[in-house]
Amino acid sequence: MTHPAPLRPSPVPSISRLFAAAFLAIAVAGLADRVATWRSARRTQADMIELSQRLEQLARVSPSPALQPQIAAMRELAAEVGDNAIQAAVQTTVIFVIILVALGIGLWYNRRRLAIPFGHVVGALQRVAAGRYDERLDEHQPEEFGMIARGVNQMAAALAWRERMQDQVGRLLTALNAPPREATTGGGGSFGPALDVIAGATGAPALALYQPQYDTNEWGPTAVRRATARPLSRDVVRQLVGDAVTVIYHASAAAGPVRTQLHLATADADAAGGLALAPLRSQGRLVGLLVATVAGELAADARVALEHAAPNLAIACERDSAHQHTRRLAVELRHAAQRLESQNAVLEEQHRELSRLNVELDQAGKLKDQFLANMSHELRTPLNSVIGFSDLLLTMATAGHPLTDTQRDYLDTIARNGRHLLELINELLDLSKIAAGRMELRLEPLELSALLLEAADTVRAQLEARRHTLAIEPLPDHLVVTADRGRLRQVLLNLLSNAIKFSTDGGRVTLGARLDAGAVRIAVSDTGIGIAPADQGKLFQEFVQIDASDSRRYEGTGLGLALSKRLVELHGGTIGVESEVGKGSTFWFTLPRAESRPERA
User: In the 8-state DSSP scheme, what is residue 336?
Assistant: First the structure.
């Protein structure tokens, strides 16, 4: 702690020193002048006496009746001159003494009426500079010194008040920044010591601090001093505070209803006083409310103390809310971590189970592939025999041994169903190969126009049976794609067969191709029944048909489009559909364009 510098004696004002110097100078000069004057008067008197003596000697030496009167007159004149000189010296000496006395009186008056009050003022200013504000000057001094004394006293009072406010703010900050273990010793929670400081600064008998409780949507009393309080609703706080930023004071007559709204209970002696509400705002947001009971009327110093304490208390409230929120988040995070640990354990168990299932699925996939490979061989061999013998029976009929219509119909049915079953087996095997990644493509440059004509010739019998018309749109010259001939032909036949099957008799099927953004776009259009937009997403899924009812009109397994999609994607292309119910559909797919033309055989 620094000690104030020792007070030095009050200096004599410069005008007093000037008066003293002038007095000494006048006194010295006057004394010298008086000495000279007295010397001159004495010499004049001596000379006049000598002149009278010589005139007497002259009268004795030359007695003359005529000169006697003149000599006598001259002797009287000489005596009168000498007396006048002495009298003049005496008079001037008396005047000098009077002047000197008057100057001494003036110096004494100046010392008493100017120097001493001035010294008191200087001493008071030195005390103020040293931090001692309790001593006051006498304000009842006459004229200017009374005004100066009042100004010095007001300055000392203002500095004392400011120092008191700074001391209160410092003690408040110390209380607010104290560690939790120290802050909770005074009661009232972590804000207990701060409320004690505010009570000492304002003289409030009871204090209560409210803060918003975001979990309960209420304002709870987080700290109280010599009072009991209950939580408040947000509407009550909004009604009492509104948009106020300064202290709101309710006199004793109007404080009763406010106490009722606040649910604030204090001692009986304090219940008759007023209430002061200090809104605690941080960046314009209300973060707390300080309620102080007032004994009598709210003093100006108490109001100022509350207003000075409000900003620091608001910062502390916001910091406390952030701390509580952080602790709540930490607890939630810890609980979430525990839940995650339990979920991780469950997921680990599920992962082990999934790994086991994957192993079983891999084994099942291998068994499925082995089954399909074996069954495809075992099924296709007898199917080929059934198809071959049914065709042979149809061709062996002669004029001598003709087939009846019933026999021929049965044989046609056997051959048709056998081919359908063989096609189904081939599609299942192809899908299995694609899923297992064992489908190998023999990519080569293919002239698209020849391939389209070949596919159209293949479905010619189906077109004629349904009386459909097939049109191939003109293609650009030498349109060449990179593809596997057999798989591309399989995709084209699937799309053409669907177009024929889902078009009413006498319909029109269009086959075309064009360049599209560096690729070749091949499209098959029909004038059939069309597909609703809601059903178009189901088209390329395995074993899915749009009409899945027991009385569906069109046969099929739903594998054709799914297999076509897989084959197109293996080529690096895409497949899609554009359709409108009742107006037909257009199935299209893209293939990469070849850089070179195919070699001629």
Answer: H
- 258 vs 88, 148, 198, 219, 326, CA distance in Å? 95, 47, 21, 15, 34
What are the pLDDT digits (tens) for 117-153?
A: 666 677 777 777 776 767 676 666 666 666 777 777 7
Instruction: Find residue 466's DSSP bridge partners.
Output: none
Does the pTM surpass 0.70? The reply is no
Least confident range from 171-185, 403-417, 424-438, 539-553: namely 539-553
Question: Which residues, 6 or more positions from 16, have their beta carbon under 8 angstroms from its beta carbon?
Answer: 107, 110, 111, 114, 115
Q: Which amino acid is at 572?
A: G
Q: In three state form, how does the secondary structure of 356-379 look?
A: HHHHHHHHHHHHHHHHHHHHHHHH
Give pLDDT, residue 470: 93
136-141's contacts with Cβ under 8 Å and 24+ in sequence apart are 141/117
Across the chain, how many H-helices and E-strands are there? 14, 13
**Contact 312/173 with Cβ under 8 angstroms?**
yes
Cα torsion at 25, 26, 32, 34 (round to 10°)?
A: -170
Residue type, 137: L
Please report, to the nearest 10 degrees, the dihedral formed by the alpha carbons of residues 383, 389, 391, 394 taken in order: -140
How many whole angstroms separate alpha carbon 25 and alpha carbon 22? Answer: 5
Tracing tokens 């006057």 back to the chain, one arrives at 30
Whole-angstrom Cα distance, residue 594 to residue 447?
A: 9
pLDDT digits (tens, 9 = 90+) for 54-90: 777 777 777 777 767 777 777 778 778 878 888 888 8
- The tokens of 296 are what? 């009598």
